[in-house]
Amino acid sequence: MPNKSANEQLSMDLHEIVETVQAALRSVGAEVASPWFYLQFGLILAAAGIAWAADAAIRSRVDMSSLAMRWPMPLRHFVRVMVLSASTAIFAIEMIASRVVMSHATWPSRSYLIVVSAKLALAWLAIRLITSVIRNAFIVKVVSLAAWTVAALSIIGQLDAAIDLLDSYSLEIGGLRLTPLLLIKAGALVIFAVWLTNIASNFAESRINRSTDLTPSIQVLLIKMIRMGLLVVAVVIALGAVGINLSALAVFTGAAGVGIGLGLQKIVANFISGLILLVDKSVKPGDLVTIGDNTGRISAMKTRYISVAPGDGREFLIPNEDLVTQKVINWTYTDKNTLVKIPFATNYDADPRVVCKIAMETAAAAPRAIKGKPPNCILTEFAEAGMKFSLTFWIADPEGMDNVKSDVMLALWEAFKGGGIRVAYPVREIRVRGGALPVETVVEVPS
Question: For residues 302 and 310, what is the distance between their CA atoms, to the nearest angstrom?
Answer without folding.
Answer: 18
